[in-house]
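Data availability (excerpt). The following record was deposited with the supplementary files.
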Amino acid sequence: MEIQDLSNNRKYQKAKEKVEAIKGFYGNLLAYCIVIPILALVNYVTTNFPWVIFPALGWGFGLAMHGFGAYGYSPFFGKAWEERKIKEFMQKS
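Predicted structure:
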């Protein structure tokens, strides 16, 4: 097997993983958009305390983190951080 084939295979696998992550994010987003309004309706009908805020904020935060990961944005561990760590570990070896 040639090096070019391995490189193409790695690129394909990485692209496939990215597509799966984005697909998972949209599935999560769709579920959020269906479930939270149902919970809000249940909350409105059953009590005056707005408890729906807690699952909406909790799931919303998780959804945002999922989206950041799926689209490659990391406010804490971005590409520059990854590159620095890779270089650091390569120099130690």
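Summary of structural features: The chain has a mean pLDDT of 88.
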